[in-house]
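Bug: token stream looks shifted between consecutive jobs. Job 1:
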Amino acid sequence: MPSKCSRRAFLGGVAATLVSLDARAEPPAAGRETKGLETRGLTTLEARKGTARLLPEPAHATEIWGFGAKTPGPLLRLAQGEELAVGLVNGLDKPLSLHWHGMRGDNAMDGVAPLTQAEVAPGGRFDYRRKALDAGLFCYRPSVFGTTPELCGRGLKGLLVVDEPKPLDADADLLLVLDDWRLAKDGVIEGDFAAPAAAAGAGRIGTLVAVDGAPAPARRDFAPGARIRLRFANLANARIMFVGFENIQPFVVAVDSQPCDAFEPVRRTIPAAPGARFEVLFDLPQAENASAKLVLRGIDEPDRDLAIFTTRGAKARARPAIAALPQNPLLPTEIKLQAAKKVDLILEPPASPGAGWRINGAASKAYGGPPLFQVKRGSPVTLGFVNRAEVAVVMHVHGHCVRLLHDLDDGWEPYWRNGVVVPPGKTKHVAFVADSPGKWAVHDDILEHEAAGLAAWFEVK
């Protein structure tokens, strides 16, 4: 990525889970007849308990919470411009909601309890209907203030793909969910979701490396020279993952659901914060029986193979040079920074065990307090995140896409983001146009930080 972040400053812990949806790569979207949700009606996502084989025998299968009793939940897929119509059924004993991570607009359907809706009580139901304005890779998960870490940490999450009208030129469309699990030796999920050390520190970091519920690495076979469209999302509670590519030249073509000019990441490694999504194109080696790897870069420990791609069979047909999708015409081409509403947030960690984060010198009231600011629709806004903690934070602006501003001049990075990593003791600024009316959350995507008060909201009128 064209950003100056050190994996040594961010990586901690020992694990990540990589779960491949449907355990296979799909052909590109063109010609497939599975677009749209169940007969274009309402798809039901029922949250209930299930099991997953996360550790080998003799350990027991792990009890998880999942949509359809599976984690990740069902892949939701529809075409750009179609209606997303999903009914959430709560079969658990905890309140729920569904947040559509990365989707712009439609505040009433954003799924943040208690800010944009009431929580869905056990046994209850809530129907979500919203138009898929943008194509891209999104994810869904609960957002219930105070309990989101446990809901997500036990497995409630999934992917949503909104297909563009003309797909990218590729031989396969591979979807991957990166996640981590914090397990005891017997395979039981550890229940320390409100641990003060996680709330004030790096968050809840898992202890298992797994692929599709089995030890890493995953293995996939493709034709020699095949062009792969890889889309991956980091759905871990807290881990900032550094995903490297070996024996392939990757080109990032979309970041956080929005297309960008194709570029090769620095050192062929992508720093992916919780909630981040990336789309990458690459060509596999031309030789048969060659291999390429997707690697989780470690710190003070060896790198770990996450996925191994092997070339087998007849060669794939030759393809033109890699090119990205067109830029999203619904996003502004410029942001008038001189006229922007400027708001700085000084973020201070809990001063003692059990205390909460402070914002601008006061104890945070999160979504129950007054708005940080109010602006008219169409107003430019710049937010400054001043991190006074000794750990990184990942600040996420709901309902909008933001530009990360350069530290030393008035420029910005050449791609849109939903969240931005703010290293310890540093300050980062983002800019956006507040074009969607409603009450919008601003919070840390490290879920244990959010639950401990690193959350607020603003209003667009």
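Job 2, same session, no restart:
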Amino acid sequence: MGHKDGDDPAAPLLAAQPDLNLLRTFLAVYRSGSFTAAAALLGLSQPTVTTQIRNLERTTGQALFERLPRGATPTPLAHDLAARVAAPLDALAAATGCDPEVLAPTAPVHLAGPAEYLSTCVLPSLAPLIADGLYLRVTTGLTDPLLDELRAGRYDLVISTARPRGRTLLSEPLADEEFALVAAPVWADRVRDRLADEGPSALHEVPLVSYAEDLPIVRRYWRHVFGRRLTCRATLTIPDLRGVLSAVKAGAGFSVLPTYLCADAFATGALVLLHETDDPPINTAHLVQRPGIPYNPHVTRVRDHLLKPGPHTCDPGV
């Protein structure tokens, strides 16, 4: 028995037999997350992409994308349509010699995330893929702006310090960051015993080094481990945790840092734990991408590599 039109959200489109070029453009917008990114992938102007999507929407009688200031979010109809047309269009492209892997063997993957984690854990892990021909473009920054740019299609993958909310982005846990209260031996020798006896007030005489004026990592450590509100003020702020590490190793004061960043300094004795706890604060990093199958097949290659257990997870153990 045939379906009624009301039973199939894609029925109006399928019945109208749209131009395949419109469907290819639709799939590029769906996969890239923006009209601008799709235009670059297809070698078209953005107005042409916009016109083609509007023509397709007139055929369906419904909107396929919600236009945002930066990017385009698929509607439920778009999700359904992409599921129906992606495999046939990809097969047709391969049969006609237009497989994206053949067309763009050097198309770069755009990856973004925290500078420290990318530099310390991720880039060394990706070195074999780069040596094998992967082209990679890396941007560092804070999570919220990077996720906005991901939605807009500027990046393919973002390593986020928090799980994004909503359904416009897909995320998977990547690794856990464990945090420790640390200082150089010159300070540890002076205050560690007092810290054990008096609690965190023993650190009031020690300069505090942080990557931000509002002390988010240190304040969280104080609440989680000591059950107290932090009352210290930063003596030195550096917007890069690697800079914080360097300053603390040199004896500038104390800080709270992710243990993966401190591993070498712990091994050499340049840095020591000020306080041991069985329940340290932990933050989960997530690997985030837009919904849909990436237009660039190398994105899937990078994603699958990062989600495998390996050095990029930066074992938090000290």
